[in-house]
Sequence to fold (735 residues):
Amino acid sequence: MDAVPALEEPLKKVLGPATAKVMAEHLGLHTVGDLLHHYPRRYEERGQLTHLADLPMDEHVTVVAQVADARLHTFASAKAPRGKGQRLEVTITDGSGRLQLVFFGAGVHKPHKELLPGTRAMFAGKVSVFNRRLQLAHPAYELLRGDTEETVETWAGALIPIYPATAKLESWKIGKALQTVLPSAQEAVDPLPESLRAGRGLATLPEALLKIHRPHTKADIEDARARLKWDEAFVLQVALARRRHADAQLPAVARRPRPDGLLAAFDDRLPFTLTEGQQKVSAEIFTDLATEHPMHRLLQGEVGSGKTMVALRAMLAVVDAGGQAAMLAPTEVLAQQHHRSVTEMMGELAEGGMLGGAETATKVVLLTGSMGAAARRHALLDLATGEAGVVIGTHALIEDKVKFHDLGLVVVDEQHRFGVEQRDALRGKGKHPPHLLVMTATPIPRTVAMTVFGDLETSVLDQLPAGRSPIASHVVPAADKPHFLARAWERVREEVVNGHQAYVVCPRIGDEEDDPKKAGRKKSPEDEAEKRPPLAVLDIAEQLAKGPLQGLRVEVLHGRMQPDDKDAVMRRFAAGEADVLVATTVIEVGVNVPNATAMVIMDADRFGVSQLHQLRGRVGRGSAPGLCLLVTEMPEASAARQRLNAVAATLDGFELSRIDLEQRREGDVLGQAQSGTRSSLRMLAVIDDEEIIAEAREEAVAVVSADPDLTGLPALRTALDALLDEEREQYLEKG
Fold:
């Protein structure tokens, strides 16, 4: 194990303080090992030219191209009034397109001498638009002469690695730094058990690191990638398998419902039969609750698939068995709504200890931060004495003052809004670790579930309950076809005339002060559509009430309103006393008004795919069909429009979450799984590498069940510690 320190050597000792400082601050690289795991984004072939036609806007790029033309212009400016200002314009080409480089002032002399027509070089800079043409202003460049010792040495072989870089550190400088540390790769300790590595024909780790940074052929790159993907998938799955293994060792109280108890009484009074899916998932949950180890289950279900019903039956089963159940909601609006719908569904079964309550009844208590002192004292007393079997609340449930009599089950709604510490704090309130059920309405592709939620068993509700109506979705291109937007407001009126209600959703509230820093900048016409401030609830509500929806009852709902005001608005809307609710995404989760049939989403391109799908699920919850209109000003060819077309084309949340993932970088998805630090996945692509993840999970389970402490695999233990220091191992429980 003495070999490890070579990779732990701080970069400032090896590369010098200036370079090391930039690497630490801008790329998060601190040690030789960090740098060795900073893999090339792609490779350029010396003889082949990059596609200048495909350059992304506003990104730092590195291109290999040839100078086609270079011209020096003089001009007058404030700094050089007598026409002495100098601007060098260089056009480079790669066969697929042309790109303009521009240098100003004293910065023109060196490139004017060096960038002569015919010269080949690597150029790095940020792509911007000037006069509707792409350009790089003051790019850094490295000539590719192929004759000096150093250049041949640095760009050995025909494949030039292009690294994720920053304005402060170009790709080739990272390449040179790697040249310095590459010999240390020989001392990299291999985390994969030898039998697994050999059995799958994978390269050793030192070999993979050499091949990824200095490949001689494309086959070298493939070998290296295959091996490095396995490392990432396997080490992550081992961490998750150890977590599951440790949880399975914890003691819990088995909770079995009584045959003639609260759950049976509740089922008897249901006016409908549960869907097949609800019955199957309930059976999985009841099996888990009956074991003496804590349940850890993720319940995924489309918006409106009846997750709350499944969760409520699990909670009643625990109350039946003498325990208490707590449901944690991300917002007060949602906690109040759950409380309302649970007490309505339970009827007299929710009136424990009250006159007229059924004999099997229990108390259902709400606990939120904005409750009055007296009501709060009352609720806390009911929890401590065990009088309240079911408690529904927000983060207020986690405070130190809150004591439970015997907490048996924790249900977390919309889990991605809860940090791990909060979940652990709530768990700590049981005499024994309580069972845990996590619910999410965001469909998660199987591979992401295995990677991000790998420590939870997964149940999926994929059919909608009887009586739910289809939702028609359409994109409304407001800029190209303004009459479409006018028609959208007519459709809203028609729904209201037919006795229904509508939502209008905006990205912003509208009472924020505009950022003065942003206000001063000049924008190009291309930026205008993209950079206009998002439409705001308060502005739109006023425009609609005075304009296209004049005469209708328009109300406003947003997150900065007082909790009581929010609740009052929601109650009025639910009771049919308002026709149109103009809101921010506070309505995204859990708001249930079956009479609302239409939704207009303004600036729909500002929302993510999953979020649009969630929002859309708020309509069509009754017997009348739903309508969702996605309003956007983005041009037809833009990626944003394609995203909206995808949402309009399918109601399948799993399909949409795949699209969402393919469009965002993996790190965004997995970033939530770790403490907000950079994703540990550099090589693994969650969607494309499904097979590797599934196989790595199997191998990891086998390794952990044979040797939970990894005593026989010290190198794997080391890799695990590097991936997850203590804090991050906690975070794999999904912050």
In short: Residues 148-157, 513-530, 665-679, 726-735 have pLDDT under 50 and may be disordered.
